[in-house]
Design brief:
The protein has 84 residues and is mainly α. Helix content is 69%, strand content 0%. It is globular, with a radius of gyration of 13 Å. The N and C termini lie far apart (38 Å).
Length: 84
């Protein structure tokens, strides 16, 4: 299998993990997408794409998202089951 296909799959898996972590953290805080949008400055429609693993957010967007959720970018990208 060509290397670029492996990278695409890894990026896709990471996007899905990011989306799941984002949605879980938002749910833990009983926060709507609209509220997270207001806190982070990220459009609610873009948040939806992120949470569904269909977006490839920039580092700046990840930083704003983490700030809005009160966590770090590494927390959002972590596969650890031990989330705070």
């Amino acid at each position: 299998m060509p290397q670029y296909l492996k990278l695409d799959q890894a990026a896709s898996d990471l996007a899905k993990m990011l989306g799941e972590n984002c949605k879980a953290r938002r749910a833990q805080q009983k926060m709507s997408q609209a509220e997270l949008s207001e806190r982070s400055g990220i459009a609610a429609s873009h948040l939806s794409y992120i949470e569904h693993g269909k977006a490839n957010p920039t580092l700046e967007v990840l930083e704003h998202l983490a700030e809005g959720l009160g966590c770090t970018v590494l927390d959002l990208l972590s596969s650890s089951q031990n989330k705070s």
